[in-house]
């Protein structure tokens, strides 16, 4: 697989959407288990994702119709991964769906407060088989271009303390840490103790 054979797109088919949901779950299994959905049932978690994700708010790295990575983008009410009660009801019974949905709403409230001049990245994922191919940079560059086209002044993201390689990449791409948040009490089981909020304002 050559880097030049990987293309970036914002349009994918239904089968590729399922791939995205699976890739998302695999990349953040601990977070889905202990922080976002509170379930170890992979099938149910992926089913919620399939019916929740707004696939048009993302860029995808594709090679021979296979999804190798993606970047979700949030801008005001245009949210890649919103809280959808009906999606939870497709996987869980009423009571279990309700409290899981409410938990995710609380999580979303910490992420969605964006002004008209900011875009937020959540998430960026590259499959394990495709790492080291420059896919993350390709996805970021597409996002930078979109940010400029929309005349936005800021692009932001969060990265956890247990992912120093990603933080280093973001810094090389021009992001700077503007806030450090200690979350140990609620996120230890999810695999991290704090996260860095980073912003890029020059494009």
Describe what this molecule looks like in 3D.
40% of the residues lie in helices and 24% in strands. The chain contains 8 helices and 7 strands. The chain has a 7-stranded mixed sheet. The two termini are 30 Å apart.
Report the helical percentage.
40-55%
Strand proportion, as a percent range, falls in: 15-25%
- Helix/strand order, N-terminal first: EHHHEEHHEHEHEHE
> Given this structure, which CATH class is correct?
Alpha Beta
The backbone outline, from C-alpha atoms, is globular
Q: Can you count the beta strands?
A: 7
Mean pLDDT: 93
Distance between the ends? 30 Å
Main sheet?
Answer: 7 strands, mixed
Q: If you compute it from the alpha carbons, what radius of gyration comes out, rounded to the nearest whole angstrom?
A: 16 Å
The strand line-up of the biggest sheet is: 1-2-3-4-5-7-6
Question: What is the assigned CATH homologous superfamily?
Answer: Gcn5-related N-acetyltransferase (GNAT)
Helix/strand/pairing category: alpha+beta
Q: What is the CATH topology?
A: Aminopeptidase
Low-pLDDT residue intervals, each spanning 5 or more residues: none
Helix segment count? 8
